[in-house]
Amino acid sequence: MLNYFSKHFNLIISACISILIFQLKFGLDKLIPTNINWLMEVRHDWGQHYLGWAFYRNESWTFPIGTIDSYYHPISTNVGLTDSIPLFAMPFKLFSSFLPSDFQYFGIWFFLCFLLMSFFILKMLTRYNFSKIQLVIFSVLFTANPVLLFREIHPALCAHWLILAAIYLYTKPVDKENALKANRSQFILLIISSLVHPYLTLIVFGFTVILPIKNYFYDKSLTIKQLIFIPVLSMFALLVVWYSVGYLSFSGTVDNGIENSFGKYSMNLNAFFDSRGYSSILSEQKSMYIGQYEGYMYFGVGLLLFGIFTLSYFLLRNIKTVQVKKYFYFLPLLFFCFAILLFSVTNTVTFNDKILLEFDIPNFITKIGNVFRASSRTFWVVFYLILLFFAVLFSKLKINNIFKSSILIVVLGVQFYDIQLFFKGKDFDFGTYDTPLEESRWNPILSKFKQLKTFPLFDFEGQKKPYDYQDLAFLAHKNGLTYSNGLSARMDRTSQDFFTNAEVSKLIKEPIPKGVLYVTTQKYLSNFSVSILKHNASMSYMDGYFLIYSQNDNIVVNQNKSETKMLSSSMASLDLHDFEILEEKIVETNDVKMNLELIIKTKEFIKIKGWAFVEGSMNNEKDSVFLILQNKSQSYIGYLKSKDREDVTTFFNAENLDNSGIESINSFSGVRAGIYQLGIGIREKTGNWSFRKTDETVEIKFD
After folding, report:
1. Which are the contacts of 179, defined by CB distance < 8 A and separation ≥ 6?
2. Which ranges in 451-579 belong to alpha helices (H)?
3. CB 662 within 8 A of CB 640
4. How far apart are the C-alpha atoms of 372 and 366, rounded to whole Å?
5. Would you say 245 and 65 are in contact if contact means Cβ atoms under 8 Å apart?
6. Contact, 606 vs 600, CB < 8 A?
């Protein structure tokens, strides 16, 4: 028994430590695959990750193999971009028909991240002169480090064991006999990381490059051909995997980069001691940018004191000549860390809420930074190397072993006292997820449809309340519907604009097709005026949402009295503004500042969306905006319904231009046939008119 324990010490201790930390952090019930409530009830990233998997498991196999067509429909996304961990999602999809309808693997994933983290820490530290109790304490300190615990909301990014495994392979002694084996292991790590998360892949790929460099120049264990071939093969394999999963697209529409985003998620120089509210001892520090939470690198008071003590004691008691040449093999790693430091801090160096330094960088680095915009995450490599450095340095201290163990016990106690807030999570009910919606009413309705479209289509931030898209998505998934909404790590903005405008146009030009259910709120109800008043679409009101669908669907919605009253008043508010003959002559003044973001014209209607105000005005609260149709013989005027546009007030730094928003549908009923030029007229509270023509014309003719 003792021999077995000694032989499998690393694995047994890692399992015990992982069970302990997992119970403290999440609770062991999260390991049960049918327990999904904890993922959905958070209503944030966990819900996104679960929904990505839930929709993916019901998809037909296609290429790329990670494609999810029924979620974020009709644009589609993939299981990698929903951060649903393709490494697990794709194998489990093979057995989807045998799995319960409520099934999640994220609890298992979290546990494996803790387990493998502990395992690789022990593998590295067993090279040094530590007792068993010291190894256990170090394993707990590393596995329950604040940086990993802070990352809980992003399960895929919790695979920090990939970084530890890469460091382990780099520091492992090799010769000509086992150098290729080490690089093969590193290659496998790269492929695994490519099926977990791109940020981890970026880090692991860095090790895939520097490991053969180290082997060639310092270990003399690889040939020049192998030095070149290994990184090239690795890059090719990585691109193949990413293309196969769907991370990479050559369509040119997916926004892999966001302009001017590099630096907004940088690492603040206060990161090592900025607890961001998760410390019982140190207070939260100021930040320059909101996004700098991505650069969370807090050590914890226990580990900070450990590092200070270890370094101070070593310098005071162990000063001696160091054989620098002995450590030359660390140079590629040091260069890699220096590059990571620059990439993490970026060219805008900040400390607290101050910018210390700004400098220009090559454009290609900015482009990479706009893709991997949370660049501060890459500093995880340096974070773990610092922890390992102090651990190794501690092993060199000439201190009694019992005293060393005592020091580590104190460090462990201080550390856990300091970061105890990480282990005070919210309690969740066990089992399936019950949405706040009345599912007994929703499910019979949804079962009659094929498509569920929120309006606007891609409003993932929420219609009635934040992230309520997840509740509707959950019900759409349960009833086998395609769903227009959704959140993905990279959004196809071009396609979003195209499909959104196309949807608005269809609602004016065509009846709602059978099998399509729209869900919207009062704010967007006017977009359905033509569908309801002209095309006779049906509308119901339930749970605070308006349900709009073809009358051919023959749906009966049981509404209570308050819902019936709300529906009746909302129906009465729907109107299609007619044009009237403009009796007075309005002279063009060209002092109207405007932007018409959307113009849709049919034979019967015109829809306008945008903003307009009198140039120079600082407050347009009492102004009224009109659409003018004008030709040589006749002029017509149509009222444009105002819409709050706080963004216009902010952009022009005005007192109040909120009333400048316009979004209205006007009917050509009563307008004489002919070709008219469109213009925007504004009547100010004083009665004065401002008028400006547009380049748009409309031809009105009657069949």
Report:
1. 215, 219, 221, 222
2. 469-478, 493-509, 529-533, 561-573
3. yes
4. 10
5. yes
6. yes
> Distance between CA atoms of 554 and 448, rounded to whole angstroms?
9
SS3 339: helix
The 3 state secondary structure assigned to 545-559 is EEEEECHHHCCCCCC
Q: Which residues contact 257 (CB under 8 A, 6 or more apart)?
A: 367, 370, 371, 373
Indicate the residue type of 414.
V
CB 392 within 8 A of CB 127: no
CA distance 152 to 137: 22
Burial of 427: CB neighbours in 10 Å, binned 0-12, 13-18, 19+: exposed
DSSP letter string, 643-692: E--HHHHHHTT-SB-GGGEEEEEEE-TTPPSEEEEEEEEEE-TTS-EEEE
**Phi then psi for 667, rounded to 5 degrees?**
-95, 140
pLDDT tens string 428-482:
889 999 999 999 999 999 999 999 999 988 877 666 778 889 999 999 999 999 9
Note whether 393 and 314 are within 8 A (CB).
yes
Return the residue matching tokens 């990014």.
Answer: 157
Q: Is the predicted pLDDT of residue 326 greater than 80, yes or no?
A: no
- Per-residue HEC secondary structure of 233-291 comes to HHHHHHHHHHHHHCCCCCCCCCCCCCCCCCCCCCCCCCCCCCCCCCCCCCCCCCCCCHH
Residue 258, pLDDT above cutoff 90:
no
Across residues 166-183, what is the average pLDDT? 93
Q: What is the gyration radius of the CA atoms in the chain, in angstroms?
A: 31
- Determine the length of the chain: 703
Distances 203 to 163, 271, 637 between C-alpha atoms, Å: 7, 19, 62
* Residue 594 identity (one-letter amino acid): M
Higher pLDDT, 351 or 325: 351
pTM above 0.70, yes or no: yes
pLDDT digits (tens, 9 = 90+) for 585-621: 778 888 999 999 889 888 889 999 999 999 989 999 8
State the amino acid at position 300 in one-letter form: G
